[in-house]
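Notes to self, Uroporphyrinogen decarboxylase (URO-D) domain-containing protein:
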Amino acid sequence: MKPAQDLLNEHINRLSTAVALEKPDRVPVVLGIDAFCAQHMGVTIADLVNDLDRSNELMLQSMQDLGDVDGTMLTVITAHVVGPAFLCNVKLPGRELGVNDLWQVDEVAAMTLEDYDTIINKGWNYFFNNFLQNRIPKAWGDFQHFFKSDFKKFEMKFVNAGILPFCSATATPPYDYFCFGRGLTNFTKDIFRHKDKVIAAADAAMVDILQNLRQQIRAAKPFSVFVGAPRSAGELVSPKMWNTFVWPYLKRIVETVVEEGSIAYLHLDGNWERDLAKFRELPKAKCIWGSDHATDIFKVKEVLGDHMCVFGDVPAALLTLGTPDEVYNYSTKLINEIGPAGFILAQACYMPANAKVENVKALVAAANGK
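result:
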């Protein structure tokens, strides 16, 4: 077996080559496993959520059992912050839910129209902390609980095993924060009835969002930055509104990531096919496109394959309901038709909690040519 440092360097070089749109020795594979490792390791999902140190250990054990994986999207269960990160509460297994239920974002729509003025006058950081503490205090408690942990320690366990923590910093555009905080119905009305106010609030929020992002990158020195935009897909927003409220802010975030010397991993849920060509405006060979399988990955390759690395895209249905041969064959198809240059093999979005272990191993085996 190779020493961990040699293995880590090999994985970093392989991923860097793919991002640079060149052909590595083999297509790299990155996995996003969290709840999946509960059934793989024989524990409940609540066990993972309630003990972050244990979740870190079991996630590493799970990944090591799956084969030669180049990178991990997560080093610890993030259930406590998926709600608070979007101005929402979160229901957790073993608390509001059964011990093997997946955590759920509880979109309470606690943000008011007047909160746009608070953001304009006092900034995003003031609003965010005040909102969590006073409007959704349970979410604030979850947020505080999560960030008491030693994340560098969690990352180093993967690093010491030769597996690269793939994205150690995050950024979200104002559109998605506002949409979750206000609720989809309220926010859709806002962008028509209060367009100027929403734009002013988004512009004001970006001052802190970009400064926070720069600080994260300088502190963490991540391989890539997770840029998530779960409500921004063109299937949810008209072209005019998308070009006003989504694209300018998403573009500035990506440009900031690149200015700071990192890579933008674009985690884009929903169908973005209408606007794929716009992404050619982003810096070449500095971005990674990843989706949840709603966007046709072959269209992404056609439009963007010579401009940015493509990531994905084995679907949840195949990983849960398919056979190992079907997973292996589809993964091989992706390697041959989307790769081998400029491509990272992965699941679509994150690994389903009920994915078959043998199917996940088949995905990894395809990348390794076994």
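- DSSP finds 16 helices and eleven strands in the chain.
- Residues 216 and 311 are 23 Å apart (CA to CA).
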